[in-house]
Amino acid sequence: KPQMQLKVHITLFGEDDRLIVIQDVTQLKQLESVRQVFISNVSHELRTPLTVISGYLETLIDTGADLAPRRQRALSQMQTQARRMEALVTDLLLLSKIENEGGEIRQLPVNMHDLLLRILDSAKVVAGDKVLKISLAVESDARLYGNETQLHSAFSNLVLNAVKYTPEGKCIDIRWHLTKRHAVLSVTDTGIGIDSIHIPRLTERFYRADPSRHTGTGGTGLGLAIVKHVLLNHDARLDISSRPGEGSCFACLFPIERIREPEVALEVH
Ligand code: ADP
Prior knowledge:
It is found in: Cell membrane. GO terms for molecular function: kinase activity. The chain has helices at residues 26-62, 69-101, 112-127, 148-164, 223-233; strands spanning 6-13, 17-24, 108-110, 133-138, 143-146, 171-178, 182-189, 237-243, 247-255, 259-260. The protein is an alpha+beta fold. The strands form three sheets. Strands 4-6-7-9-8 form a five-stranded mixed β-sheet, with helices on one face. It is globular, with a radius of gyration of 22 Å. Bound molecules: adenosine-5'-diphosphate. Adenosine-5'-diphosphate (ADP) is lined by residues 157, 161-162, 165, 189, 191-194, 202, 207-209, 214, 219-224, 248.
């Protein structure tokens, strides 16, 4: 069949025996691609009307100082919901772009120190008045070979989640270090934590550990799905450990082969 897609599973038994299962996944892949195109088109189509609605709402709010308080409240509610929808559409488009790109992305050695500093700055902005102790430890100046835009999306989702789910006065530690086999970016918080039954499903689209706890956190439920796909595109994996009431640790483990030593500037005399 033209363009047939096969998945091959090989299991080894002892020294010589192998069980090889070949699965035809052509239809599954086609369905998946139809789903992706559909989501991407719908999100695109929703973006323009939403921008128009948000624009008019902003004008109405700016010029509505003499409106009755009930009407002002209604407008402000409408603006909050329009912003939520915009965030959803942006994340849906980002997720489908990252899924479509797969591993075929522009990759270069990324300076993690600079990237994490930028993320730290935006985390402080998002935290706003909430006082948090946020620390950044960059223990290696080695570069990570990857796509900077995608890595930025993944790491900032983890850091902004930590900000969202950590109460005032608690800590967030961002750490970049190397082990024998991995380059690790970890975000550890002393926030609300997650019950272990939720952990295996957290990277599914729209999965939220306990929706009733999250009213008002403003998330889209797509952040960790984005993280998962970025990591897949970089041959990396996400390790999650957490205890309710104590905090969580999200660690991105990249194969050590992705590490590049920084170029040494040559001194010319
Ligand atoms: P959301 O937009 O809801 O934050 P995510 O996909 O980023 O969506 O995360 C999925 C769920 O995982 C969240 O709704 C929350 O229940 C849980 N979660 C993620 N990060 C943390 C964290 N640092 N502490 C506690 N719970 C978290």
